[in-house]
């Protein structure tokens, strides 16, 4: 699984970081970014939940 955060959509709600801190972090400006684009299998379920729960639909799967 590969993902990316579209910084044009992210508004910094932090839902992804709450659901999967192993994959997401916040920039100094408070917006989400993926720590890695290649998601380890053990974090795929939490990453998919973050994708579904993102209020701005900013997390994209490649």
From TrEMBL:
UniProt keyword Transport, yes or no: yes
One Pfam family hit: Fer4_15
Source superkingdom: Bacteria
Cofactor(s) required for function per UniProt: [3Fe-4S] cluster
Any coiled-coil regions, as ranges: none
Record's keyword terms, sorted: 3Fe-4S, Electron transport, Iron, Iron-sulfur, Metal-binding, Transport
InterPro entries (UniProt xref): 3Fe4S_ferredoxin (IPR001080), 4Fe4S_Fe-S-bd (IPR017896), Fe-S_cluster_ET (IPR051269)
Keyword NADP found: no
Location of the 4Fe-4S ferredoxin-type domain: 1-29
Molecular function (Gene Ontology), one example: iron ion binding
UniProt function note: Ferredoxins are iron-sulfur proteins that transfer electrons in a wide variety of metabolic reactions.
Protein name stated in the entry: Ferredoxin
Origin species: Mycobacterium vicinigordonae
Phylogenetic lineage: Bacteria, Bacillati, Actinomycetota, Actinomycetes, Mycobacteriales
């Amino acid at each position: 699984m590969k993902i990316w955060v579209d910084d044009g959509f992210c508004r910094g709600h932090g839902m992804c970081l709450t659901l999967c801190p192993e994959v997401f972090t916040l920039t100094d400006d408070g917006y989400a970014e993926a720590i890695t684009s290649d998601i380890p299998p053990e974090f795929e379920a939490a990453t998919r939940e973050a994708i579904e729960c993102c209020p701005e639909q900013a997390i994209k799967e490649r």
